[in-house]
Every structure is written in structure tokens, then in C-alpha cells.
Amino acid sequence: MMSILEQRHIVECAFLPLACSCSIDGSESVTIQIKDPVTAQVYLNVTGISRAELSTSRQISQLVMQLRQDLRALNSGTSRRQAVSYTHLTLPTTPYV
């Protein structure tokens, strides 16, 4: 598994030029907050991501892609952005049969 610092760095850099902070609490739960770097307005706040879900670069990439889609949907839905906050749900990795 990647170190906490590596995971944080990859996630936080993925959203530049927006400001992104990635914090990990004692129970290995990750919170990601994406905000405007000038006004500090929060666009997206996601909690409850298990650190184990970010153990590979592919998993991190998939999460970043999902969050970017959420940001795009938020931006296209209204000209005036409103903050969105939700708890991340783990989806099964095995396909349904």
C-alpha cells in the first residue's frame, strides 16, 4: 500500500488549480474537500472513503475521475455553484452476474 503522504499528494494535485485537501483520521477514513483557491468556497466535501480503497494508483485514479464528474455535474447544473457534501459508498469490485 502507498504511504499516506503519497496518497494525499496524488489526490490533492489531481484537482489543481482548485484547492484540494485530503485528510485521514485515526480510523483510516479519508475526507476530501475541494474548494475555490481564492474565495475558499467549498464545492465538494466527501467523507467516509476507506484508505484501503486508495491502495493503488488505479483506485486513486478512479476516485479522482468520479469526483471530477461530480464537479462537472455540479458546474453544469447551475451557473452559481453550491457546495455538495456526501459520504462515499463503497461499490463492489466484482461484476454482477
* Strand line-up in the sheet with most strands: 1-2-3-4
Helical coverage, percent range: 25-40%
Distance between the termini: 30 Å
Approximately how much beta-strand content do the residues carry? 25-35%
The class by helix and strand makeup works out as alpha+beta
Silhouette: globular
The average pLDDT is 80
Q: What count of helical segments does DSSP give? A: 2
Radius of gyration: 14 Å
Largest sheet features: 4 strands, mixed
- Secondary-structure element sequence? HEEEHE
Strand element count: 4
Taking pLDDT < 50 over at least 5 consecutive residues as the criterion, the unreliable ranges are 89-97
List its traits.
single chain, 97 residues, alpha+beta, four-stranded mixed beta sheet, 4 strands, globular
Description:
There is one protein chain. By secondary structure, the protein is an alpha+beta fold. 33% of the residues lie in helices and 27% in strands. A 4-stranded mixed β-sheet has the order 1-2-3-4, with helices on one face. Residues 89-97 have low confidence and may be disordered.
Describe, in short, the structure shown.
The chain has 97 residues and is an alpha+beta fold.
Detail the topology: elements first, then pairings.
Blueprint: H1 4-14, E1 19-24, E2 29-35, E3 42-50, H2 57-77, E4 84-87
Parallel strand pairs: 3-4
Antiparallel strand pairs: 1-2, 2-3
